[in-house]
Specification:
- The complex is a heterodimer of chains A (309) and B (179).
- With 309 residues, chain A is of the alpha/beta class.
- Chain A has eleven helices and nine strands.
- Chain A has two domains: 142 residues, 3-Layer(aba) Sandwich (Rossmann fold), CATH 3.40.50; 146 residues, Aspartate/ornithine carbamoyltransferase (Rossmann fold), CATH 3.40.50.1370.
- Chain B has 179 residues and is α/β, with parallel strands linked by helices.
- Chain B has a single domain, classed as Rossmann fold.
- Helices cover 27% and strands 30% of the residues of chain B.
- The longest helix of chain B has 19 residues.
- The N and C termini of chain B lie close together (5 Å).
- Classes of the chains: A alpha/beta (309), B alpha/beta (179).
- At the A-B interface, helix 1 and helix 11 of A face loops of B.
Chain lengths: 309, 179
């Protein structure tokens, strides 16, 4: 059997197509496991995992924790809000203190770009990036592609448009890398102020007309407007954003074809997507959440396999 | 490397019929019994037995599942090559059922130990029996013995027992290989 070409999961840009294929095949088996009456396997009995969340998270943190527990790993959790980080401790000190408690794998979300890479060079544990600033969120991109593969049979040759706040989105960048590795065509769509200046260097086309973008695509991955990361006004008003880039049932009904609707959550209902679209049969938003656990189990399992005692 | 044939296709056919009859003796119409083949290699034997029971011995309602034990093995992270999983196909609950675990070769008993743990994820069976084609006695690491065996072999540890099925290797045969 193949093994992962990387020692940590820091970003999709460090992976190759075989890695993604291996992760998906492994995730297929775990998806079967989490649909059993007893949803747990003993593989990681002797592995301890620390979930370090220096930024807020609900879905990702719960999904990782559940994946770890389904694999029988021991889990410790840490949220920056209630920690010594507020007392002035550095990242390396915090993590080394945690590692002295004999932790094998660190899952980390951090507000700074490259925090995972930095940590992987300074501590002796497997690092899984659960989001670093506006940079990458590799497990989200993997579960998005896995969900497309599940719904449409494969990712290769499919047309995917990522709609919304591309500039502040780590989900967008990781998705672009992952989709292109698997041979999909990617466009982004959003207000020009929220599209990164050098996006074309990634081989991604920009479409500022939502209707045209949706007519072109097989799948629309809709992102949230990340108000918390905006220091200036990138568009005049939420109402205007919704009018130009919000996805509603009327637009979809007039496309003349079915497209798959995805959203990594959390959803701002009525802003980037209306409730009737988010809850429709075309939406695979809740499948994404279920697949997230299976894909994270696969990533943790494959990395844990490399740990030698 | 020398190789000698332990069982040819005729021998295997006779053994399969005997094993099927022994199962019928103990399980009657199989209404409370499920057969579980261990992936990947035990599934050939399990499929073959199920075919025989259904088509030759007219067992109407036979439940057959395939179980992958990769995530339950005790050598995770202890071997060089990573463990590759295969699919598990069990679309019924085994609560209060009589389970017959089926594998091709019983060697150390560790796979069966893993299977005993894995099977519990599908409920609490009434009892579990073990059926193997080849029982390599004197090689056990655990106190596990088969209830039904095709052939007992006293192969020494340096020898390998190879089971070939016509589904993958063109013909049915069991070989002993001296390395």
């Amino acid at each position: 059997m193949d093994k992962l070409s990387v020692e940590h999961l820091l970003g999709i840009k460090y992976l190759n197509a075989n890695d993604i294929d291996l992760i998906f095949k492994t995730a297929d088996h775990f998806k079967e496991v989490i649909n059993r009456p007893i949803k747990k396997v003993p593989s990681l009995r002797d592995i301890t995992i620390a979930n370090l969340f220096f930024e807020n998270s609900t879905r990702t943190k719960l999904s990782f924790e559940l994946a770890e527990k389904r694999l029988s790993a021991d889990v410790i959790n840490f949220s920056a809000g209630q920690s010594s980080v507020k007392k002035g401790e550095t990242l390396i000190d915090t993590v080394n203190n945690i590692l002295s408690m004999k932790v094998d794998i660190v899952v980390m979300r951090h507000g700074s770009v490259g925090a995972g890479v930095f940590l992987s060079k300074h501590v002796d544990a497997k690092i899984i990036n659960a989001g670093d600033g506006t940079h990458e969120h590799p497990t989200q991109a993997l579960l998005d592609s896995y969900s497309i593969r599940e719904k449409l049979g494969s990712v290769k040759g499919k047309k995917i448009v990522i709609v919304g706040d591309i500039l502040h989105s780590r989900v967008a960048l990781s998705n672009i890398f992952a989709l292109q590795l698997q041979g999909a065509k990617v466009k982004v769509c959003g207000p020009t102020t929220l599209i990164p200046k050098y996006i074309s260097s990634l081989g991604v086309e920009v479409e500022t007309n939502l209707k045209k973008a949706l007519e072109w695509c097989d799948v629309a991955n809709v992102l949230r407007v990340q108000n918390e990361r905006m220091d200036i006004n990138f568009f005049p008003s939420t109402r205007e954003y919704t009018q130009l880039f919000g996805i509603n049932k009327d637009i979809l009904d007039n496309l003349g074809k079915k497209i798959v609707i995805m959203h990594p959550g959390p959803i701002n209902r009525g802003v980037e997507i209306t409730s009737d679209v988010a809850d429709s049969d075309d939406s695979i938003i809740l499948n994404q959440v279920e697949n997230g656990v299976a894909v994270r189990m696969a990533v943790i399992y494959l990395l844990a396999q490399q740990i030698k005692r | 490397m020398s190789r000698k044939t332990l069982l040819n296709s005729k021998d295997i056919e006779i053994i399969l019929h005997r094993l099927a009859c022994q199962l019928i003796e103990n399980h009657n119409d199989f209404s409370d019994t499920v057969l579980i083949g261990l992936q990947p290699r035990g599934s050939f034997l399990a499929n073959r037995l199920a075919d025989l029971l259904k088509n030759h011995y007219n067992i109407k309602d036979l439940k057959l599942g395939l179980l992958d034990i990769t995530f339950y093995r005790d050598d995770f992270r202890r071997r060089e090559a990573p463990l590759a999983a295969t699919s598990t196909e069990i679309d019924f609950l085994i609560e209060d059922k009589k389970v017959v675990i089926i594998d091709d070769v019983l060697f150390s008993g560790r796979s069966i130990r893993a299977a005993l743990t894995a099977i519990q994820s599908y409920g609490r069976p009434e009892n579990i029996e073990l059926l193997v084609l080849i029982d390599r006695r004197f090689s056990r690491h655990l106190p596990i013995q088969p209830d039904y065996r095709g052939r007992q072999v006293d192969a020494i540890n340096e020898e390998r027992v190879l089971v070939s099925w016509k589904e993958t290797n063109k013909k049915d045969a069991v070989y002993i290989e001296q390395t």
